[in-house]
């Protein structure tokens, strides 16, 4: 259980602005919810991602709204993929990749991320591990730092807005569990935003395994003492820029702007604190499928867009000016559609990164000696991870575990649902026309009930329920045949 | 806006001592208790006036966690001033000052002016480090010292401005080579011609706020 000393923590950080009282909060009933709310004005508007007052910049404007029919079709496809994950990954991985590039449907994103990252397999192969770690006390020193950071992660997201509320409690549990899981690594502050993004999409146990996978497979060494891996990746990014945008490369060189100055937060937080939210999600969809090359490519697109023309460079003659520019990236370059298109076009592959890694490692050894932290080799994406830890069918089964806790009755066949049913039939027939290849397998009734129950209903904040319910119904509409 | 000089500052100290809040209070004149944790580096800038001269302060705010120390060295480079911050309500943040100071001395130029700041002075009831201890530490290590509150803005202006004054004095004494940007000082276009007319007195009132 989270040990947040609310009294102590809140005293020195109480907002000087008026804080809306807890009774106005949607999650007033939530366990552990606290009267202390992160400071924000009372006329709060929550965007569809859960950010209050548009706190994650430009999220609304930059999001592409998909027609519901398209979304439902995608949900059907993803449901099929998730129930036959091993086959899809083995035989039609390109299709999985393509669908990640198009964007994972919001209702299935959490589950898809867990499957892509291998967190699902890891969780199944380590049953009870999280519970065990969760029940341990933890190193007081680490806990002290973690506790200080809880209210500093997406403080304007409704899930993390209330002190000692669900979100902050879960964040504490996940981060604490990680320090117990990897005592050699401990807690690094940049892990917190990663864990928080995961928690916005899945329950604590799943988020924990997702975090483990990101820290160990996707970005090994990023959060280890000395931060050598991130510095090395900075050098790799810089070297690869020479090819992607010689102009930007020369500018960075001329003004002696070390990569570590501009890319630390980008890479360590996987852009979760840089981009508008719609773009963060699309980048993560691709990142968890294809690995770190996506992070490199996003970095390169931003550098190229901001520093890639003579005109732009004229306006920023100097280190500080350049740094300022890179901290205020024009929204149009971060817009979801633009960014994804550009990212897909960057001519940098995982192999290029590995090759450059080798070159930079050699240089590092020559100049600075051996690395202090020997990290395991990086896995470039979902397929590599799956190959390294082959799952059994059992590991990939979708478990209806949460329904037991939530005591949520199975969805009754309401008249509304029947209506949806009809609609979904029409859509299905439409979809069949447009389909090139058939799906692997039809959903069985058992799996269908698993779909309802596997969804982390309990975990979802009551305040985000409207959004969730929308998605929830859209799933129902899709799968009822 | 044209400036006579530009000084680069860096803010260092343990995590949670209030580095980002000090910066925000100085540049924006507000206290924001809820903000994202600093990962890597943040920036701020403000114009001040010393001795009738416009001086632009360019401030780099760093991540405080131990593991980020290894990359903080990149930020020290070319800093003319450093604010070394501890939290008067947390003894450990005071105890870590020596290692911070070692880092700063090792990675910066030797003339860098260091201001020691005991922050959160508004929390008198929870004080763990006496003011005298801060003063003694500063004396011992040749630092300037102040207690501040980023929350109430007490002494925040003074901390940044006094550091600038000290740097300005050093320039006058000829300690800093102002033509070498690695010292964290840049001469602005406005001042280049009148460089030789520096007088001994210091004005020290700040220009009316505003980030630049």
Automatic annotation (TrEMBL), chain A:
The keyword Aminoacyl-tRNA synthetase does not apply. Residues 417-430 have a biased composition (Basic and acidic residues). Residues 103-291 form the Rab-GAP TBC domain. Gene3D superfamilies: putative rabgap domain of human tbc1 domain family member 14 like domains, Ypt/Rab-GAP domain of gyp1p, domain 1, Ypt/Rab-GAP domain of gyp1p, domain 3. Keywords: GTPase activation. The keyword Transcription does not apply. PROSITE patterns: TBC_RABGAP. This is Rab-GAP TBC domain-containing protein.
From TrEMBL, chain B:
PROSITE patterns: RAB, RAS, RHO. One of its GO terms (biological process) is protein transport. Transmembrane segments: none annotated. SUPFAM superfamilies: P-loop containing nucleoside triphosphate hydrolases. The keyword Protease does not apply. Pfam families: Ras. InterPro entries: P-loop_NTPase, Rab_GTPases_membrane_traffic, Small_GTP-bd, Small_GTPase. Keywords: ER-Golgi transport, Golgi apparatus, GTP-binding, Lipoprotein, Membrane, Nucleotide-binding, Prenylation, Protein transport, Transport. It comes from the Eukaryota. It is a lipid-anchor. It is found in: Cytoplasmic vesicle, Secretory vesicle, Acrosome; Endoplasmic reticulum membrane; Golgi apparatus membrane. Signal peptide: none annotated. GO terms for cellular component: acrosomal vesicle; endoplasmic reticulum membrane; Golgi membrane. The keyword Nucleotide-binding applies. One of its GO terms (molecular function) is GTPase activity. Belongs to the small GTPase superfamily. Rab family. PANTHER family: DRAB11-RELATED. This is Ras-related protein Rab-2A. It comes from Coregonus suidteri.
